[in-house]
Amino acid sequence: MTRYHTAQLLAGVSAVGFVLAAGLHTSEYRGVVLRAQQGFSGLAPFVAALWLTFAAALVILGLIVTLVAFGRVTPGRSILALAGCFPSVTVVLQLHFLGFTPPVAVFSAVAAVTFAAALTFPTGRRLAPSQTSPAA
Known about the structure:
Layout: H1 3-27, H2 29-38, H3 44-69, H4 76-97, H5 102-120, H6 124-127
């Protein structure tokens, strides 16, 4: 297995992780909204919108990482590195404000696999076939 195929496999696993994390995140929607309504009543609509927006962002990142895994995007290494920052920041914020929860483990795994894919993904120069000028 070549380095490129390993990076594609890791990016594919990462994409699945993003979509699964979005599903897990969405499954807690009702509980979070109910807790928000118990607190400040005016805050509940904003929490609900933010919760669904975060899940949508995870799905979109999963789709972007899927495009990188299929080789449809040229700067794959940079895109994977940036995509890995989203779950990493989420882990830091959740650890700071909520402590360790099961989603922290999921987001940590997604971030680790995404960064591993970014590190193993070859640069754009190595992907392009060598261009030689035809002999006259």
